[in-house]
Amino acid sequence: MLPIQTTGNTMSTVYVFIYLQLLDLLTTLVGFRLGAAEASPFIRILMHAGPIAGVIGSKVVALALGAYCIAIKKQRLIRWVSYWYGGLVVWNLMIMLTAAGHMAQ
C-alpha cells in the first residue's frame, strides 16, 4: 500500500469531517432520547440492529468513505460533504429544540 501524503489544509478538512461525524452521532442519539425519529431511509434500515448500532454503523460507513476519498485524492469531495453534515447537525439541533419544547408543554 502506498503512503498517503496530506497537507495541513487536507488534515484540517479531515478533522472537520470527523468532528461533524461525531456531532451528528451525538445530536442524533440525543434526539432519539427526546422522542425524535430518524428521517434517513438508509439509517432506518441499519437501525433494525438497534438504534445506537444503526447510527454508529452509518458513521463507520461515512468514515470509511471519507478514508477512501483521501486515498484516491478526492479531498474536495470531503469538504463538500462536510457542508452537508454541518447542515445536518443544525437540523438535528432544531429537531432537538422542537422535541424538548413539546416535552415541556
Q: What oligomeric state do the depicted chains represent?
A: single chain
Number of strands: 0
Strand content: under 5%
- Helix count equals 4
- Compressed to H and E, one letter per element, the order equals HHHH
The gross shape turns out to be globular
Number of domains: 1
Q: How does the major sheet shape up?
A: none
Based on helices, strands and strand pairing, what is the structural class?
mainly alpha
Radius of gyration: 16 Å
Give the helix/strand layout.
Blueprint: H1 8-33, H2 41-46, H3 51-71, H4 75-104
Helix pairs in contact: 1-3, 1-4
Word description of this protein:
With 105 residues, the chain is mainly α. The chain has one domain. 79% of the residues lie in helices and 0% in strands. The radius of gyration is 16 Å and the shape is globular. The model has no long low-confidence stretch (mean pLDDT 90).
Q: Could you give a quick summary of the protein structure above?
A:
Helix content is 79%, strand content 0%. The chain is mainly alpha-helical and 105 residues long.
